[in-house]
Amino acid sequence: MDTQLLNIALADDDEDDRMLFSEAIDEIGIRTKLSLFKHGQELMDYLTLPNIVLPNLIFLDLNMPIKNGLQCLKEIRENPDLKDLCIAIYSTSSSEKDVEETFLNGANIYLNKPNNFVKLQASVERVLQLNWQYHTSNLNKDTFLFRI
Amino acid sequence: MTFFVKYDFDLACKTLLREHLDAFDVSYSLGSLGEVKIKGGLSEEQRNSLATSLKRYGIEILDGQKITLVERIKNAIDELLKDKDLKSIKVSTYLSDTLHYSYAHLSSVFSESTYTSIENYIILRKVDLAKELICNTDLTLTEIAFRLNYSSVAHLSGQFKKTTGLTPSSFQRIMSKKIKHTVNPKT
């Protein structure tokens, strides 16, 4: 068994959502280390620090103050050091416009915030599994698009 | 000017390997499943220089213990999905015959180290191949379904939607827009 830790980051301005997410991820059978950020700017400041261990996967809320999820996504994809990071959008919005716009700007996964804890756990686990498969298998990262 | 290329992953890798191995003046043969046989072997120095030059292309020489059973299972699955003649063979029979372990053993080793089952991995891999064919070829969904051994287009579409959350046509639409978007982000 590979016991390598998966580094996960979540940027979400809602404190309850951050707490629920962190509880959900704790109870999944995949070993993770979660870093939490209150808004997009805080996340971007962290990602551009020198010599940090980059997360394997970033969950981005769309509606955040100071810097929203879409802006972060664009900045990450434009930065040569960060552009290969796997990004999951984590939003209450299920508008086709948001889904399409984030995919066009390089999101890999679009996850609608589920309305109960059990579903949240199942969805987060699914995202981690997919991300794991893309890290460890010969799957085509150019077509890494999932909506959950 | 911007243009697009289509490539055969397998052929590209094998050609690359050949070019690099030819430089060493040794007799070798390339097997399937990423296997390279070298008559007489390589010296430590040769091996290191080969490893360095291949690393640039994302090709890594695996050490004995690193070639885990899981990777061999994945390679065998790729081989099975690619080869039209193998379509009628049952996956479990194929894997246990090729890898010389019982399917029960393979299946438990696989699940233990990948967070998924062989069956689910095959579905993910098939959908991945379908995605590739949708993006890089002019094949219709019917042809793709046939090529990937689905019983019908409906079966392919259903599995595609269930796995990715997108229908094949919306995936295709997003990908073609994405290509335009990447070429010219302003529009």
Automatic annotation (TrEMBL), chain A:
Give every Response regulatory domain span. 7-128
The record's annotation in InterPro entries points to: CheY-like_superfamily, Sig_transdc_resp-reg_receiver, TCS_response_regulator
Q: Which residues carry this modification: 4-aspartylphosphate?
A: D61
Write out the coiled-coil annotation as residue ranges. Answer: none
Q: Which residues form the signal peptide?
A: none
Keywords for the protein's UniProt record, in alphabetical order:
Phosphoprotein
Cited Pfam families: Response_reg
Q: Which domain of life is it from?
A: Bacteria
User: Is Kinase there in the keyword field?
Assistant: no
- The name of this protein is Response regulator
Q: Which organism is it from?
A: Zobellia barbeyronii
From TrEMBL, chain B:
Enumerate the InterPro entries for this protein: Homeodomain-like_sf, HTH_AraC, HTH_AraC-typ_CS
Locate the HTH araC/xylS-type domain: which residues?
71-174
Q: Which UniProt keywords apply?
A: DNA-binding, Transcription, Transcription regulation
Stated name of the protein: Helix-turn-helix transcriptional regulator
What is the source species?
Zobellia barbeyronii
